[in-house]
């Protein structure tokens, strides 16, 4: 849903670049590959810590210098660091040293950069991806969603969305996206930019 909303709000130039960078199998649809970063995290083991930010328990603030690191303490290895990294890579697209339709800058795979960035923009806005280290993103917190036993992270990532689509939008993601788009304001966007 995040990628579908984002793609619909791109400038003409950005939409053209996204279309050029997407694999042909995507049919120009960024949302069809928005979960790609989740699917490859087991092949690209190095990418696992890029999906979240852990802050010390009971510290209700985030500091890039303190918190953006992986379990070994390597700085920049969190979702905010990944967004910085992949944004920088994508800014090389269309530079004079590249052919206009190049999907690689030689140094970077810009298609992968686009897919990682698109996914991580959703992750950083997901409360369970940015929280206390001991919470492990809600993956160790057992809950019941209606009659189904699951973990809190799954409820937030999947169950709430599926239930809303089914109960309010006749299982139509398009209607759901339209409703969400109507509620996005300039103020929402500027507040998000402040926090990111």
TrEMBL record:
One annotated GO biological process: DNA catabolic process
Keyword Glycoprotein annotated: yes
CDD domains for this protein: S1-P1_nuclease
A Pfam family reported for this protein in Swiss-Prot or TrEMBL: S1-P1_nuclease
Top EC class, one word: hydrolase
Keywords, ordered alphabetically: Disulfide bond, Endonuclease, Glycoprotein, Hydrolase, Metal-binding, Nuclease
Reaction equations catalysed: Endonucleolytic cleavage to 5'-phosphomononucleotide and 5'-phosphooligonucleotide end-products
Name of protein: Aspergillus nuclease S1
Species in which this protein is naturally found: Aegilops tauschii subsp. strangulata
């Amino acid at each position: 849903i995040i990628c579908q909303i984002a793609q619909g709000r791109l400038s003409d130039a950005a939409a053209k670049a996204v279309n050029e960078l997407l694999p042909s199998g995507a049919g120009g649809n960024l949302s069809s590959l928005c979960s790609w970063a989740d699917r490859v995290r087991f092949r690209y083991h190095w990418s696992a810590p890029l999906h979240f930010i852990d802050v010390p328990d009971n510290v209700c603030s985030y500091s890039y210098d303190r918190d953006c690191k992986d379990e070994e303490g390597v700085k920049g290895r969190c979702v905010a660091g990944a967004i910085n990294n992949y944004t920088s890579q994508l800014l090389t697209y269309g530079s004079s040293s590249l052919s206009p339709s190049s999907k690689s800058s030689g140094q970077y795979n810009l298609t992968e950069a686009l897919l990682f960035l698109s996914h991580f923009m959703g992750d950083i806005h997901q409360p369970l991806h940015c929280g206390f280290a001991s919470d492990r993103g809600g993956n160790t917190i057992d809950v019941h969603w209606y009659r189904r036993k699951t973990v809190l992270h799954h409820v937030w990532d999947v169950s709430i969305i599926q239930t809303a689509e089914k109960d309010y939008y006749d299982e139509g993601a398009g209607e759901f996206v339209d409703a969400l788009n109507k509620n996005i304001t300039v103020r929402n966007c500027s507040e998000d930019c402040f926090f990111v």
